[in-house]
């Protein structure tokens, strides 16, 4: 379903981390802190992040379903062990506490306020736990109407069950929602398989499109959504 000549949505759903919240920047800070505490100078931050991401994504799709706090701690432990570094019980708390404190991108709060003023209802759909994301949502100026997490759905993106659960909870059909996200790997696969409209916020992080899917619009920052929607008559 394309945006042009399609109906104005009732709800806008958002990926949180990387779209609204400064995920990459916050994750680097957390991993820097962990490596510094270990005196691990031979392993650089980007290497640990890459290995951590691989383990995290694999665990998210491996039964049984685990809370994000548990999963993140296990993925970090596995990544540290793979790189020959010691893991301890404080590592997971350092990571998840940092995630909760990650701030929004500079344009996000004002953009969300303007979208609210335009009459849209706003929902976050995120691969996390309710208590982890609460600190991030608190920084969004009271603009978010609903928060739907992997914890609630019992499934992590790109598993379509998280989006199916979200649409059921919101009571929307596909033509009543537009999803706005930054992660091709996690969100675009679901958009392709389910058929909901999707706007990609490509912040120049190096993430690339899936070979068999192209989003309905591509923008460099969230505030571009305002002009896009106005151009569509929404």
From TrEMBL:
* Tree of life domain: Bacteria
Q: Which UniProt keywords apply?
A: Hydrolase
Gene3D superfamilies according to UniProt: 1.10.150.750, HAD superfamily/HAD-like (3.40.50.1000)
Q: Name one Pfam family in it.
A: Hydrolase
GO MF terms listed in the record are: hydrolase activity, acting on acid halide bonds, in C-halide compounds
Protein name in UniProt = Haloacid dehalogenase type II
